[in-house]
Write a structure and sequence with these properties.
The protein is mainly beta. The chain has no helices and 16 strands.
Length: 203
């Protein structure tokens, strides 16, 4: 699907079924399609690029097919009514701000093969329980900041930024809410003044 295909067509598109054989949805393809309520992606799809579905504020559910390895930057950002998201277990990267401001989104589970959750990927999202896969390479700065997270299991990452759970008001300060089985030297930091929740290397 080429760049800008249906960019800001407002309420003129309600349902989209992308045919088999399509491997990529390019940048801004459906950006701002305010009337779009249903999208069926083909099993052949390998990549969703930057802002492909950003601002599709009536879209309530999305299934990411099995061959889709990368979800691009801001691809579903501001899809404020998205409630259900199914991501295949072979997906390896969720781009920067991919699901930012998806306030109603409560993702059941993250892909087992996932390697990268980029900067602010779930900033402001409705996700409640986070179980991060093993063997991750990157957990970006503010990845889950300002979200509805209530509990976390962190299975380790080669590189992780600060403020991962900053301003998560529903995440209790008790250490049992954050499970870090493979990182015994990481402690929980909590500052009631700024409501900052983060991974802090033990001293």
């Amino acid at each position: 699907v080429p760049y800008w295909s249906f960019y800001f067509t407002e309420d003129n598109i309600y349902s989209v079924k992308i045919p088999e054989g399509v491997k990529k949805i390019s940048k801004y393809a459906f950006n701002g399609c305010g009337g779009l309520t249903k999208v069926q992606l083909p099993e052949s799809l390998e990549e969703i690029e930057t802002e492909a579905f950003r601002g599709c504020n009536k879209l309530e559910a999305m299934r990411i097919p099995h061959k889709t390895m990368r979800v691009g930057e801001s691809s579903f950002r501001d899809c404020v009514n998205m409630k259900k998201l199914e991501v295949n277990n072979d997906c390896i990267k969720l781009g920067e701000r991919a699901f930012e401001n998806c306030a109603k989104l409560d993702l059941a589970s993250l892909p087992s093969a996932l390697k990268e959750i980029s900067i602010e990927a779930f900033n402001g999202a409705g996700i409640k329980n986070v179980v991060l896969p093993e063997n991750m390479t990157l957990l970006g700065i503010y990845a889950f900041a300002n979200s509805a997270v209530e509990s976390v299991v962190f299975n380790g990452a080669e590189d992780y930024g600060g403020g991962i759970f900053a301003y998560c008001d529903k995440l209790a300060s008790e250490s049992e809410k954050l499970t870090v089985p493979f990182y015994p030297n990481i402690s929980v930091g909590w500052d009631n003044n700024v409501r900052f929740y983060d991974f802090i290397p033990g001293v």
